[in-house]
Amino acid sequence: MAIPLDYETLRLIWWVLLGVLLIGFALTDGYDLGVATLLPFIARSDEERRLVINSVAPHWEGHQVWLILGGGAIFAAWPFVYAVSFSGFYLAMFLVLATLIVRPLAFKYRSKHADAAWRARWDWALFVSGLVPALVFGVAVGNVLAGAPFRLDADLRSHYEGSLLGLFSPFALVAGLLSVAMLVVHGAGWLMMKVEQGPVWQRVRRFGAIAAVVAVALFGLGGLMIGHGAMGVRLLGTLDPAGPSNPHYAMMIAAPGAWLDNYVRHPLLLAAPLAGVTGFLFSLVGIRWRHHLAAFAGSSLAIIGVIATVGVSMFPFILPSSIDAGSSLTVWNASSSHLTLWIMLVVTVILLPIVLAYTSWAFKVMFGRISLADIRTNPDFY
Amino acid sequence: MDLAVVELSRFQFALTAMFHFLFVPLTLGLSFLLVIMESIYVMTGRPIWRRITRFWGKLFGINFVLGVGTGLTMEFEFGTNWAYYSHYVGDIFGAPLAIEGLMAFFLEATFVGLMFFGWERLSRVGHLAVTFCVALGTNLSALWILIANGWMQNPAGSTFNPDTMRMEVTDFSAVIFNPVAQAKFVHTVSAGYVCASVFVLGISAWFLLKGRWVAVAKRSMMVAAAFGLASSLSVVVLGDESGYALTDNQKMKLAAIEAMWHTEPAPAGLTLFGIPDLATHTTRYELKLPFVLGLISTRSLTGQVIGISELVLHADERIHSGLIAYDAVERLKVNRGDTTARMAFELHKADLGYAMLLKRQVADPRQATDAQILEAARDTIPNVPVMFWLFRLMAGLGFLFIGFFALAFYCASVCQFERRWFLRIAVAMIPLPWIAIEFGWVLAEIGRQPWAVEGVLPTFLAASSLTVPQVWATIAGFTTLYTVLAVIEIRLMLATIRKGPVEAGDHPESEAKRPAFAAVPAE
Question: Do B172 and A93 touch (CB under 8 A)?
Answer without folding.
Answer: no
